Amino acid sequence: MNEVIDLLKSHRSIRKFTDQAIPRDLLLELIRAGQSAATSSHVQAYSIIHVKNPENREKIAELASGQTYIATCSDFLVFCADMKRPTDSAERTGAEVVRGMTEQFLVASVDTALMAQNVVVAAESAGLGICYIGGIRNNPAEISELLKLPDHVFPVFGLCLGYPDQDPEVKPRLPVESILMEDYYREDEDSVNRFDDTMHTYYSERTGGNKDTNWSEQLSPLFNAKLRAHMRDFLKKRGFELK
Prior knowledge:
Strand content: 5-15%
Structural class: alpha+beta
Strand order of the largest sheet: 1-2-4-3
């Protein structure tokens, strides 16, 4: 198609990085590229914590269930949904600001994700590898305290950045016909079944036959228990009351 589409379709998560540092000027350009993402009503409801302190990175790796590449990548960023800056700014104009609305939570979360994905695409276009770290939500209160996040700010995910020291295969995605629907929602169990076969082959070949599973089976741990049940109370304590 074109180079941009080819780049987007070649995404892999990288978990092994070389010792080469990302130049500061390049890192700043990646962040500027992130800022060019779409943002609801120009709110720009995000902040990024560049975690440089090695001890803090080790601690975050521990809090994120032992994901050691948090400590070994060139740069580690924590993307935060930030409703403090925009609401404080509006309040300074004399507005009677209402905080804690569900829509504010959604706007901040979506803004943060869009911004981060722009950073990721820019990074991969420059030959860097990335890995999103949703595991920081395993212990969001501890990480918020470590990063000194104020109320109305919460950590959405982390991002490892660095020069790749591995070359994994691109992981298959669901068939487009299973997610692209015309006019109305419809279920397509057949395409999901075919995808399960595809993923079973992928896992088997990647592990030399040591992983006997498929996509649907991999989902089971995510839905057979209350995943991160602490998040609702955590968000309320951070000022996202979901009113």
